[in-house]
Write a structure and sequence with these properties.
Helices cover 38% and strands 25% of the residues. The chain has 408 residues and is an alpha/beta fold. The strands form three sheets. Strands 7, 9, 10, 11, 12, 13, 15, 16, 17, 18 and 19 form an eleven-stranded mixed β-sheet that branches. A six-stranded parallel β-sheet has the order 3-2-1-4-5-6, with helices on both faces. A two-stranded parallel sheet has the order 8-14. Helix 5 (99-116) packs parallel to helix 11 (194-208) and helix 8 packs across helix 9.
Length: 408
């Protein structure tokens, strides 16, 4: 089977490398040899053996009937969308690692692939090297999914781990992450939470069967996290993680991304460094944990090649798997109404305002830490974010920050 790779950057070069170096085992698993006929890129690569396969015009690939699969690893929505859609319309299978593309256009491209009886696979778009999507749509189909909670961004998890273990500042760990290649020069997609937001939108869409608009998900990044937050977390025996979570409750579907306090009873507590993990809770099976490298050249490329192999195995099958993901928009319930417990940091001396705070918040616990002058923290009882916000409106100038406690 001949295929074309769209993009020869970090992931694209990794895909080419794996297909070449693991050719023997890949041929066995795919049931046939796989050959890269073209690699599309704006650049040339003199001295690289791939240069003889480089093309700059996508129409060369689109109009070549020998090419039965395109592998999109360019990133961004445009022109990736036009390229993948064009391939599917021309009867070619498509594989992508592009979370932006899948979050925005996944339902449409899946439906088109079904109509054209080809495959559209995107395993690497959520968990990098961690198999998440295929287990959800093939192995967890007897359960009603109640909750998805995950650490879905390796960059921020690495930064939070360093801040916790080394006592470093946010600026220092960001600089370190950039020097090590874990963070981009412009790290906003990671540190502001948008990368994790798109990934939980994909998982929520697959679990709910309809399109979840990532732009409607409340998303808070890690830019406001300080060493004071880690001190409070340590006092409670908890860890701070950037969690993406979706809860399918009887009264609605709640999806959000933000820093959370995780207890040692939760398997996500042990996930450190650039590793990612997804915890899926079913109504019959209970919790399932999927853990591994969520990013990086080799991990992501490995997931892409696994999709290529799967597409090769099934391309002659006239009965393609119909993934339940309708283009109709799934209405999300207001996340501000979702009940949680919170760690709230407040300015002032506790001994002066304790009775007042006790009356308003009815906290489960007060915390005063040495070295943190003129501030304290409370652990609230279960309440909605909106309720907490209304209470804090009556305390102008006192509120510092709040973070929800992930329930086990």
């Amino acid at each position: 089977m001949k295929l074309a790779v769209l993009g020869y950057g970090t992931v694209g070069s990794g895909v080419v490398q794996i297909l070449e170096e693991n050719r023997d085992i890949i041929s066995v698993n795919a049931g046939e040899d796989l050959e890269i006929k073209y690699v599309l890129d704006l650049r040339d690569f003199p001295g690289d053996p791939i240069q003889k396969k480089i093309v700059h015009d996508y129409n060369v690939i689109l109009n070549d009937s020998e090419v039965e699969m395109v592998v999109e690893v360019m990133g961004g929505v445009h022109p990736a969308y036009e390229f993948v859609k064009g391939a599917i319309e021309n009867g070619k299978n498509a594989v992508t690692s592009n979370k932006e593309l899948v979050a925005a256009c996944g339902a449409e491209l899946l439906e088109l692939a079904h109509l054209k009886n080809v495959d559209f696979f995107f395993e690497a778009s959520v968990g990098g090297g961690i198999p998440v999507i295929r287990p959800m749509i093939r192995c967890l189909t007897a359960d009603r999914i109640l909750k998805i909670s995950g650490i879905l961004n390796g960059t921020t998890n690495y930064m939070l781990t360093c801040m916790e273990e080394d006592g470093a500042s946010y600026d220092d760990v960001l600089r370190q992450a950039q020097e090590m290649g874990f963070a981009e020069r412009d790290p906003s997609a990671d540190v502001e939470g948008w990368d994790a937001c798109r990934k939980i939108a994909i998982l929520s869409s697959l679990a709910g069967g309809q399109q979840v608009d990532y732009r409607e998900i409340r998303t808070i990044g890690i830019t406001g996290i300080t060493q004071a937050d880690f001190r409070y977390a340590a006092a409670l025996g908890l860890r701070i993680r950037l969690l993406a979570r979706a809860s399918f409750a009887p009264d609605g579907i709640y999806v959000q991304v933000g820093p959370a306090l995780v207890s040692s009873d939760d398997p996500l507590y042990a996930v450190k460094g650039v590793y990612n993990a997804v915890k899926i809770t079913g109504d019959r099976l209970g919790d399932v944990m999927l853990y591994g490298q969520g990013a990086g050249k080799d991990a992501t490329a490995s997931a892409v090649v696994s999709d290529i192999i799967e597409a090769a195995r099934t391309r002659r099958n006239p009965y393609k798997l119909k993934v339940r993901w309708d283009e109709k928009k799934l209405a999300l319930s207001p996340i501000g109404e979702y009940p949680s417990r919170f760690l709230v940091r407040l300015r002032g001396r506790l001994d002066e305002v304790k009775d007042e705070i006790q009356k308003k918040l009815q906290p489960e616990r007060f915390l005063v830490l040495d070295g943190l002058e003129d501030e304290f923290a409370v652990v609230t009882s279960a309440m909605s974010d909106d309720t907490l916000a209304r209470i804090l409106e009556g305390e102008p100038g006192r509120f510092i920050s709040r973070m929800y406690l992930e329930e086990v």
